[in-house]
Amino acid sequence: MSNLQKSCVVDGIQLKHRYVPGDGPCTVFVSGLGESGEVWDGVIEHLPAGLSTFVYDRAGCGSSGPVDAATAVGDAQPIQWGAEQLFKLLNTVGVPKPWVLVGHSMGGLIVDAFARLWPEQVTGLALVDASDPVLHTALDNDKLVLVDGRDGEGWRISVPATLDNFEPGPQRQIETVVIGSAVWRWLPVKKAAEYRPLTLVEMDQWWQRHQLNLAKRWTGHLVVPHFAGHHVHKDSPELVAYVAQCLAAAERGAIQLDQAALIQHGGTARVSVTNGEFTEWGPTGPRSDAD
Known about the structure:
Structural class: alpha/beta
């Protein structure tokens, strides 16, 4: 796909974006820390023709301009700042509501905040190996401020303020699919010292537990890819595209995931959450009490 060519100004920031109108609710893709919207091209190429999509570069990322002067010299902002920026951008461009939101890593935190702020505008939510803000405060080399994009031009994210913003949880149920990374994907990490005092095995357990908790948080489904690492949208684009397609097709109804199709696309549904209770999936679908 071509670069993000169109731009508009939101709160003094020039934001590049690509909006393709089409059928059904628009699927909005939100990239991880410092990444451009073009990282989603592989996923979008696997979507059915005619599906409406929207990608963008946040301030200081990709081809977008820097943050405004006040934000540049001010305090670091909570994750809610990124959600508000996206909300204003979608409305400025005129993308029809409701939206399906797909966010990776730190982008997962952005769409989580977005869906809690404007739940009536969101018809589906996909959290793609979304970050855990608690993890940044649990390591020896914790980072209380993260820089999103080019140094001096990107938005500075306050981890403590993000933690304060993370609760309370959702007040309205939204059809949600959590797509984690493969089990044991932390073991090949070469710079293990960065995650002390946790071992890589403990990191993997922490991360998998966080993805499960996200499914519980949103009363949703947990899908685990067979081999994909943290960049699930790059390693298993067909899997992410299939989930996004299912969310768009639901449009205010219950999402219909097919286990055989998930397996074909490189992943497996593991559990679904209803009323706080976990239901395990088998080879053909959710297991019943009689299984």
